[in-house]
Design brief:
By secondary structure, the protein is an alpha/beta fold. It is built from 16 helices and 17 strands. Helices cover 43% and strands 15% of the residues. The strands form 6 sheets. It has a 5-stranded parallel sheet. A 4-stranded mixed sheet has the order 14-15-16-17.
């Protein structure tokens, strides 16, 4: 007979009784262990709820201020995105503050804008600032389950990995699906042939975007019957979809009656065409090739515009982690000061606009420009290197200045 030190009852060998290592006279029965486990789990759940209720949420203005430090322009899109993110996490952490039967539904976000306009950067910036995991994937790599490619459920595997295996943190993360416009179905009419990377992927995304229990493989890859699965509830995961949607302006133009047939009609300029996106309606996205069910789950729409030359120069110089500041630090490590003439920065911006790669192309241009200079950088310790317009346009060498003396 062994006496449980917690409940005081005597037990035979038919009941599991554990003894302490330091004191063999101290025992605990399996019933007390079970009760303690239930108590600890309940206490942890209540503590999490208390922490969530006490959590201070950043206001939309504060979230936009964070975005302003890293994303240039796109004022309207940043406002819409900030409100969407704020409402999502308010729904998770503060919904129980008001004791009523009203349940707030989840609102996912659709970002529409040209490449290099800041869609991915906006999602990455807020995810990092809010300390939530983020998974970024390309919609073009996804296929329906059973076909060659990546299963849609693998998105959540990436998110779990980004959360370092923390399941609770994963359930409050952000998933960014880029190039969502590239999986539009082949036409507005359903095709007889199987569209495994188009409409089929959209259908597969519906389940996890809306919120459901999804079985995922811990290591990703294809599922097989004998492997262990992890269950993830995607109800509180924020899904952000982004895409360029080339040609969407034409669809909107037809709807609002801008393409008038006849002679002597003025063409709509590029600036006016970009403004057409502000008139976006769900039916335009349906005509583009997104299925109505998916559009119905992307409630918040934000439109990003093309960056002009002035915006490009600001992207180069103003953000906290701007490209110019990064290069200045690289040069400073070798005790070299780096300077750019205003005309040189403007020429770099013009090149990026010409290549139609948006702000993303600025990095490539700068790498091409600075490679030869950085090859010889350690030899110019104590110098100031000035990048001039001729360096950008004509490939000439920059100015090397030491003790107020110039030399080429």
């Amino acid at each position: 007979m062994k006496k449980c030190s917690f409940c005081g009852k005597d037990y035979t060998d038919d009941v599991t009784v554990l003894s302490g290592q330091s004191n063999t006279n101290a025992y605990i029965c399996e019933f007390c262990v079970s009760n303690i486990y239930k108590y600890v789990v309940k206490e942890n759940e209540e503590r999490v709820k208390r922490n969530d209720a006490e959590r201070k949420l950043l206001t939309p203005k504060e979230l936009k201020q964070v975005l302003d430090e890293f994303v240039i322009g796109q004022d309207r899109a940043k406002k819409v995105f900030s409100v969407g993110v704020y409402n999502h996490y308010k729904r998770i952490f503060k919904q129980d503050v008001k004791d009523d039967d009203t349940e707030i539904s989840k609102s996912n976000i659709l970002l529409i804008g040209p490449t290099g306009s800041g869609k991915t950067l906006m999602a990455q910036t807020l995810a990092k600032f809010l300390d939530v995991p983020i998974a970024i994937c390309d919609a073009t790599s996804l296929t329906e389950a059973g076909y060659v490619g990546e299963d849609v459920e693998n998105i959540l595997t990436r998110l779990l990995q980004a959360a370092d295996g923390d399941l609770e943190k994963c359930k409050q993360g952000i998933v960014f699906i880029d190039e969502i416009d590239k999986i539009s179905r082949m036409s507005e009419n359903r095709s007889i042939t199987r569209d495994v990377s188009g409409e089929g992927v959209q259908q597969a995304l519906l389940k996890i975007i809306e919120g459901s229990i999804v079985n995922i493989s811990p290591k990703g890859g294809r599922k097989h019957p004998n492997q262990d699965f992890i269950q993830i509830d995607s109800t509180n995961i924020l899904f952000v979809c982004g895409g360029a949607f080339d040609g969407l302006e034409e669809i909107i133009k037809r709807r609002v009656g801008k393409n008038i047939l006849g002679f002597n009609q003025k063409k709509v300029g590029k600036s006016k065409e970009s403004e057409l996106l502000n008139l976006l309606e769900p039916e335009d996205l349906i005509h583009y090739g997104l299925i109505p069910e998916l559009i119905g789950r992307l409630h918040v729409n934000a439109v990003l515009q093309n960056l002009n030359k002035s915006d490009m120069v600001k992207v180069l110089t103003e953000p906290k982690n701007s490209i110019v500041k990064q290069y200045e630090k690289l040069f400073a490590i070798d005790e070299v000061k780096l300077s750019f003439e205003t005309e040189a920065l403007e020429a770099i911006a013009e090149l990026a606009i010409k290549r139609k790669t948006g702000a993303r192309g600025l990095r490539t241009i700068m790498e091409e420009l600075m490679t030869d200079i950085m090859f010889e950088l350690p030899d110019f310790k104590g110098y100031e290197i000035v990048i001039t317009l001729d360096v950008v346009k004509n490939g000439q060498k920059p100015l090397f200045i030491k003790k107020n003396k110039k030399s080429a």
